Every structure is written in C-alpha cells, then in structure tokens.
Amino acid sequence: MISSARTLKKLCVVVPGLNEGDSLHTLYQELMQVLGRAGWTLEIIFIDDGSSDKTLLVCRQLHETNPNFQYISLSRNFGHQRALTAGLDVASGDAIVIMDADLQDPPEVVLEMIKLWEQGVDVVYGQRRSREGETFFKKATAKLFYRVLRLLSGTAIPEDTGDFRLMDIQVVEQLRKLREQGRFLRGLVSWLGFVQKPVFYDRKPRLQGVTKYPFLRMLRFGWDGITAFSSLPLRLATLTGVLFSFAAFVMTVYYTFCKIYYPDDYVPGWASIMVAILGVGGVQLLFTGIVGEYLAKAFEELKERPLYIVRESSVSLPKPEPRGERHP
Ligand code: UDP
Ligand code: MG
C-alpha cells in the first residue's frame, strides 16, 4: 500500500540477544548516536533470550537511565526467531527495525531504510553486498541455502537477506497474526506482501564473542525455512517412487526376457540384487524420515504452545489471544 510522504514520529528498534552483555553498552551508544538524535522518538526493545551472562543486569541499568530502552527477558533460551517475535509483539511506533545485537548490521543503514519508508515502501530489508569476517564455509552455505529455498518455495524470499529490516507498523500488525511454531520470519514477511524493497549494505564482523548460530543450528534453521515454505520434499517421495517402480518394471521385463531366450548365459546377479535392495531401502527410509519431519511439525503446531515465556519485562505485554474458533 503506497501512502507517500510519511513522517516518522516514533521509531522502534527490536534487538534480540543471547549472552551479548559485553556489546550491549556499545550497541546502545551507537543506536542513540545514529538514530537517537533525529526528530523522532527512539525506542529500543532488547530481548534477553535466556542469557547466562550479565545481559539482564545491563538491560535493567539501561532502562533506569533511559525509559525508552525497554527489555523483555525470556524464561529460557527460545531461539532468535521467537525472541524477535516477543519484541515485535510489544513494539509500537510508525516503523519497526529488527537488528542483531552484535552490530553486524550497521545502524547507519537504518537511516537509508527510513528514507525509503518515507517514500512509501512498507518493508525495507537489508541485502548483503559483502560479509566481512565470516568464514568461506558460512558464506557458501548461506548462498546455496537461499538459492535452494527460492527453488523450492512458492514464496519469493530474497537472497542474501537476513532479518535486518525496517517494517511499517501495519506490516508488523499483520505479522503478529502469524503464530506458527516453525518460525522463519524473513519468509513470513515476504509472504505478507506489501511493498518491499532492498537496501544494499556490507555486513560487518561481529563486535565481540562468537556466533550463536553454529553449523548444526544453522542447518536446523535452514530446514525449518524449507519445510515451512515448501512441501516439495514430501512430493519428491512420490516422484522418486514412480521412477524406482518404473526402473523395477523395466528390469523385470529385461530379466524375464534374458531367462527365456538366453537361459544358459543367465547368471543370477547377487550384486545387482543387493544394490537394488539397499538402494530402494535407503530411499524408502529417507522419505519416511521426511514424512516424519512434517508430521512432527504438524504435531508441534497442534499443541499451540505459547511461542515464548517472559520472566521479567519493562514493557507491558499483550494479552494472549483467546483460543478462538478452533476451541470454542
Ligand atoms: N540470538 C538470540 N537467541 C539465540 C541465538 C541468537 O537472541 O538463540 C541473537 C544473537 O545474540 C544475535 C542475533 O540473534 O543478536 C544473531 O545471532 P548471531 O550474531 O550469533 O548469528 P550470525 O550473525 O552469526 O548469523
Ligand atoms: Mg551476528
């Protein structure tokens, strides 16, 4: 929805963090310096995602010095995407920015995002031109992932894009309605539609500490993204089944033919039988596994558990949605 000439009165920055106590002061200062001076109110909402370091202490201090620094502390580690969800649930203002706590997403880019928002763009996402300080492996797998995801999903999720983005409040209000457990926010935002445009930026190295997304967690996240947006892996089972059945049919005809017309030359081939048994068995197991994955996801959704639990917070939290039509 293009409604041009918007003016920003309040900007809200949502930052999730797991054990980022050491970068919190720097992050706060940078945000205040770059985004706090302009003609709008800046609110920062930090979500402590079950940190075991001094994160919560620093949050309390910052809130005392500046009431516009708000925090939500979750009861345990719920993961980046759910921490973000908690922040988005309480965020208010005209536009909401999501960024990481490690300053890999430079706050200066937000100024560019605001300009586009003022021109009527509803979602401005940061697209990475380069990623300093990240391993070749991480860059290569990220690239591959975005390509596969685009290929598999019907939703066009832009490549080389993380969660760093600015969204109009209208978009956030719609996003809040999507309460699925398998959360892949960048995909959900793409799915919502509205006017979406990129801003290109160079991703900086981490301020301090190590990535909270080790390889296996990254893999899990990627798989969540694919399964949330595509049922192609399930359908692949049918396709592969058809191919294998066809191959089996052709082979049956061929071996019958051999047995009838060249009975002397015909030597029972144990090797080929073993290969066929193992191959088919393997493929069957693989696809049973994939079916299981989707079933497990359906099971998770069915339970309708809350997406996160708050232990302490400086903001008032929204009341949980009534269970609605499904459970009258
Ligand atoms: N994070 C979080 N909960 C988690 C994992 C990560 O809140 O369970 C936060 C983390 O503190 C950081 C952001 O999510 O602010 C992105 O994580 P990270 O920088 O480790 O990922 P990377 O940039 O390496 O992909
Ligand atoms: Mg990071």
Can you walk me through this structure?
The chain is of the alpha/beta class. It folds into 2 domains: 10-214 and 308-313, Spore Coat Polysaccharide Biosynthesis Protein SpsA, Chain A, CATH 3.90.550; 232-303. It is built from 10 helices and 8 strands. It has helices at 21-35, 55-65, 80-90, 108-118, 136-152, 169-175, 185-192, 215-229, 232-261, 270-303, and strands at residues 10-17, 41-48, 69-74, 95-98, 123-131, 161-168, 196-203, 310-313. The chain has an 8-stranded mixed beta sheet with strand order 7-5-6-4-1-2-3-8, with helices on both faces. Helix 1 links the parallel strand 1 and strand 2 (41-48). The longest helix has 34 residues, at 270-303. The radius of gyration is 25 Å and the shape is elongated. The mean pLDDT is 85. Bound molecules: uridine-5'-diphosphate (UDP) and magnesium ion. Uridine-5'-diphosphate binds at residues 16-18, 20, 49, 77, 79-80, 83, 100-102, 104, 211-213. Magnesium ion is lined by residues 100, 102, 104, 206, 211.
Which features characterize this protein?
single chain; 328 residues; Spore Coat Polysaccharide Biosynthesis Protein SpsA, Chain A; elongated; binds uridine-5'-diphosphate; binds magnesium ion
Layout: helices, strands, pairs:
Blueprint: E1 10-17, H1 21-35, E2 41-48, H2 55-65, E3 69-74, H3 80-90, E4 95-98, H4 108-118, E5 123-131, H5 136-152, E6 161-168, H6 169-175, H7 185-192, E7 196-203, H8 215-229, H9 232-261, H10 270-303, E8 310-313
Parallel strand pairs: 1-2, 1-4, 2-3, 5-7
Antiparallel strand pairs: 3-8, 4-6, 5-6
Helix pairs in contact: 1-2, 5-8, 9-10
The structure holds uridine-5'-diphosphate (UDP) and magnesium ion (MG).
Magnesium ion binds at residues 100, 102, 104, 206, 211.
